[in-house]
Amino acid sequence: MQAKDIVRRFVDEYQSGGSEAAFAEYLDANVIDHNLPPGVAPGAPGVHQQFDGFRAAFPDFHATILDQITEGDKVVTRKVFTGTHLGPLQGIEPTGRKVEIHVIDIVRVANGKIVEHWNCVDRLGLLAQLGALPQMSAAPA
């Protein structure tokens, strides 16, 4: 299976579908995730913890791949996560709002598994959709 197919199946089967079998099959136990926040376990347990949190906050969580580019052992994926905010998320109480979270991932695949991950997430856009940004006052005239 090619690297692009591994990433696509991980997104479709685990990120969207929640398949624990896909998680184990496509993600190396010692994956290096360069974007896990402080306090989150390293490796696969940290990735799992992150997605458990997203699914708790957005029970209808779904990932849609928009574009993929492969170069050597790396796959770049532009995707959008969607869901309805029905559970707490990093201190933000549920709002009931539907959101779209735009993400660009770079993953490195070796021996049929995802072994390294970097990403860029539109967190500011997510906070705006949740109404969690402080209101800016108008500049004086």
Task: Set down the secondary structure blueprint.
Blueprint lengths: L2 H14 L3 H7 E7 L9 H15 L4 E10 L2 E11 L13 E13 L2 E9 L1 H7 L12
Parallel strand pairs: 1-5
Antiparallel strand pairs: 2-3, 3-4, 4-5
Helix pairs in contact: 1-2
Structure, explained:
It is a single chain. The chain is 30% helix and 35% strand. With 141 residues, the chain is α+β, with helices and mostly antiparallel strands. It has a five-stranded mixed β-sheet. The longest helix is centred in the middle third of the chain and has 15 residues, at 43-57. The protein is globular and about 60 Å long.
In whole angstroms, how far apart are the ends? Answer: 62 Å
- Give the number of helices: 4
Helix content: 25-40%
Strand content: 35-45%
Biggest sheet descriptor: 5 strands, mixed
Q: Note the overall shape.
A: globular
**Sequence of strands across the biggest β-sheet:** 1-5-4-3-2
User: Would you identify the regions where 5 or more consecutive residues have pLDDT less than 50?
Assistant: none
Q: Which series of helices and strands comes N to C?
A: HHEHEEEEH
How big is the Rg? 16 Å
Number of strands: 5
Could you report the average pLDDT, rounded to the nearest whole number?
95
| Structural category | alpha+beta
